[in-house]
Write a structure and sequence with these properties.
Blueprint lengths: L9 H13 L4 H17 L5 H15 L12
Helix pairs in contact: 1-2
């Protein structure tokens, strides 16, 4: 992992701390998560942040074998 120094406003740090606590994450993992969602939102402006998070959750569940991929042949 690469370490970089980034200047972040105190207000944004407070918001990130609250988000981290609500999501049961440490500050660094919350920041990485939010950055990932933000970058994906920029790359996919037609999707909401909630839709992006739902897609990532479904992808993780699929990779862990908790769900199976649905196809039209399953109907």
């Amino acid at each position: 992992m690469v370490r970089k120094t980034v200047n972040i406003s105190e207000d944004l740090i407070k918001e990130l701390k609250v988000y981290a606590r609500k999501e049961s994450r440490d500050f660094s993992s919350a920041l990485r998560h939010i950055l990932r969602i933000g970058l994906l939102a920029l790359q996919n402006p037609e999707l909401t942040a909630r839709e992006i998070m739902d897609i990532l959750e479904a992808k993780a569940e699929l990779e862990e074998g908790l769900i199976e991929e649905f196809t039209l042949e399953d109907i």
